[in-house]
Amino acid sequence: MRLRNGSHAAAAPDDRAPVAIICGGGTLPFAVADAAAMQGRRVVLLAIRGWADPARVAGYRHHWVALGQFGRLRRLAQAENCRDVVFIGAVIRPAIRGIRLDWATILLLPRIIRLYRGGDDQLLSGIGRIFEEHGMRLRGAHEVAPNILVPAGPIGRLRPSRRDEADIARGLGVLSALGPFDIGQAVVVADNHVLAVEAAEGTDNLLARVAELRKVGRIRSPGGVGVLVKAPKPGQDRRLDLPAVGPQTISGVIRAGLAGVAVVAGGAIMAEPEEVAAAADSGKVFVVGVGADPSQP
User: Fold this and answer.
1) Closest Cα to residue 230, out of 265, 257, 281?
2) Against a cut of 0.90, is the pTM above it?
C-alpha cells in the first residue's frame, strides 16, 4: 500500500524499536520515557519549547522543537531511527498565528486550518494522520508504558460512599452523553447535581472554578461532598489524548472541597501513583478506578 505522498504505510509496531516521545509539559512524558527504557527501548525526547521542563529534559537524550516545526521534528525522528512516535504532556491548543511554521508545515497549512475548525479530538486525530502519512507509527503512551494506566479499585486508603457512587454514575452518564460533541473529559457532580463540565480550560482550571463557586456561595452542598469524574470520550483516538490524573489533580480536588475523584480504569493515565495515593490520604479524599458503564460505578 502506498500513501498519497508516496510513502509506504507504517509497518506493524515493534515493541523493541526506538521510540520518539513528543514531550509537552508535566511529568507524564518522563514517566513514559522511564517505563519504555525499562523495557529495553531506546528513547529520544522531542521536547516542545515553552512547554517541556528543561531541567527534566536534560536527563534524557533529546532535541528541542517549536510548535509548527513538523519538518524538523520528522527529520530528527528519522535521524534517530525512531519510527514509533508518542505524543504526551500538556500543550494548550495554540492560535495558528502563534505557531512557528517551517516549510513542511506551511505546505500542510490549508489542511491544518480545516482541522482547527473542529474540537480538540478532530485536531489531534488529524495531526496523527499526518504523521502516519509521512511514514511514522503513532503509538499511545499506554502502549509503550502500560503500567501508567489507572487500575480498577481504590488508590489510597479511602473509598467512595454510596452517595459518592451515585455521583460517579451521574458523572459517567454526563460524559458519555457529551462525548460526541468533543467537549471535555471531566465533570464535577455533587448530590446528583452537575456543578461544572470541563471545556477548553482543562481539569485544573475546572477545579479552580468549582473552588471559586464554593467560596462565593454558589454551591450549596457542604464541603466533602461531590466527585470529579474523568473518562475518555467515546470513540476518541486513545493514542493521542487520554485523561490524566496526578498529584496536582488531587490538590485541586481538595481545594474544591470535593470528596474525591473517579476515573475510568484502563481509560486514564497516572504517572505518579504513589504520590497520588499519599496526597489523597493526606487530604482525606478518595481516588478510584471505575468501570465505564454508568450503571456500574
Assistant:
1) 265
2) no
